Every structure is written in structure tokens, then in C-alpha cells.
Amino acid sequence: MTRSLRVAPEYISKVKSALQLHGYPSQQSLATDSGLGLSTVKSFLSGKAIDYLNFLELCTKLNLDLQEIAYKQPQTQSTNQEASPFITGVPITQPRYFFGREKELKRLFNVLKRHPLQNAAIIGKKRSGKTSLLHYLKNITTTPAAQLRSGQKSDWLPHPENYKWVFVDLQDARMQSRERLLKYILESLNIKVPMPCDLDHFMNIVSENLSSPTVILLDEIGVGLQRCPNLDDTFWESLRSLATNHTRGNLAFVLATPESPIDLAHNTGHSSPFFNIFGYTAFLEALTEKEARELIGSSPIPFTEDDSEWILTQSKCQPLLLQILCRERLYILEEGDDHADWQAEALRQIQPFSHLLDG
User: Fold this and answer.
1) In a domain, 103, yes or no
2) Per the domain annotation, does 79 fall within a domain?
3) What is the rounded CA–CA span in Å between residue 275 and residue 236?
4) Which of 14, 233, 234, 351 gives 272 a disulfide partner, CB atoms 3.0 to 4.6 angstroms apart?
């Protein structure tokens, strides 16, 4: 959700000519109609980078094919930035740095690898790794082996190249508008966005065009229910109908939430049967000791057995706490200051997340 796009140089003249062709006498009139700033429109028309969803909005207004006109960045491997071995505070998006959850992954992929696809919910406390697990589901089956750990399992699906994945972060304010959310889903599926992009047109075009296995990952679903009046029961009922009756078993939803979907809907004043379709629930608790030791063992500078045991004990095998404690130990080892009281500092760092140790 953070990427930006710009018009490829060879298409700038086509984009400018589309302005009057579609009834916009000025750049300001396009800005007013699209609800965007004039500076954004000027940047778009001159080939400067703008936000992905703004780019999509302007393409829709001008009836332009985003895939055709967007500049394609040459694929190059970054060599000037060192990857962090232990990741805290942000979701893990690269599969090689994700550890554990083997039991949950087996069950989740089991409901997604056969026809019809089935829906699943991921339930866990805040900071228990729900978002990272969603990213892992999306990325692991198509990540090249050279970018994975040695022996890391990736053959979860028989034909992963046939699957389409859409990750939706409902904390993103842009996803809290029904029209923008529907446009984003269609664009992610490479389906032409209809005009207008309302719920009826969305249902029709997805029903007609969805022919391959598709999984929509809904992160922070509670935010969508609490803060987004446009995402009402009619909206959720339509998604349920789409998945169960109109896409021939090719569509499934996987959502992440701190409580059961039914309880979440009830507690936020929703009654849509959408929240009854999640036949499998993955409950995120601590990692197994074997999984936790694998994470600890990934340190570029090996830890002593005493250090590893202390980290296991203090973290109770909770992934975030493991990451923090390993980060603190590695920092001291890299600094060569083994006289520092790293354990005291490590305990201070995990204190804000002590709720993960409860129960």
C-alpha cells in the first residue's frame, strides 16, 4: 500500500490528450472531479510519481489502462542495504525472516489448495504476528528458492502460479472508502475498473471475470467495522454472496482479528452473515520450542547455549519477544562489548509487550 506510480515517458502525450477527449477542459476540472489536489494532477500529467491509489483514480477518470501507461521499474538487486536479521515493530514481509506457525500454515493452505476454496480467520492478541502471517501466505509459494532459508518449505500449493492474492489493510484510510476499496481489489486482480465502480458493478464484473483461485486477505478487520460506515452490512453481505454463490468456488477470504469474527461483528453493531462463513480459525499463540530455537539459531553471530536458554525462558516463545531479545543480544555481540548488562536492557525493551506473556 505504500508504492507510487508514474506515467511512462512514451505515454505522457497520450495521457494529456485524454484530458479533453473525456470532457475535461482544464487540469483543475479533472482535479475537482476526482477529489484530488491540482498539484497531484499536474504531477500525473507530467510523468512524476504519485500515490498508487491516486494514479488509479486518474486512470479511471480518463479511461486509461494503468498496466499499459505505468512506468515499469527495471528489476535490480539492492546491494547497499543490509537486511535486518531480527525484525520488530513492522510486519515481516520477506518469507526468509518468518519462523514457525507450521501447524497453522498446514491447515490454512489445506483449505485454500482444494476446490472450492474455503474461508479462514486468524485470531491473536495485538502484536502476535497476524499481519506477518497474512504476508507469508501471500508470498511464500512464489518466492524464489534463492531468497528463502535452506530447507524452508514453500510447496504448499500444487499450482501456486494460478493463484491471485489481494492484501487489504483496513487501517489505511484509503481502504475505508467503499469505492476506493473496490477499485483497489479490481486493480490488484487486473480486472478493468467499471464506471461507476459501485457495489452492483463490482459484483457483476467479478462474477464474470474471476476464473482462477483468488484469496483476499483482510487485515485489521476490526478497524473496518468500527470506523467505516460505507462498509455496512450490505457491503459485507455482498462479499459473502460473491464468495459462496457467484465465483464458482474460486474466491476465499482470510481475515485477521483479535477476536472471533462473529463476536467482532456483534460488538461493533454488525449482523451480516459474512462473519459466519469462516470455517477454520487459526489461533496464534506461542511458537513451539523447536520453532523458537530455529529463530534464535538464525543469528549471524551464534548465541551461547546459556543465552539461548535465557531468551527462551524470558520470551515464553512469543515471536515478537524472541525477535526483540535476539536483536538486543546480537547488538552487543556486534559491538564487542560483552561486559554490558544486555539482559537488563532486553527486559526493558520487551516490557511494553508484556501482555503477550499473560495466559
Assistant:
1) yes
2) no
3) 8
4) 233
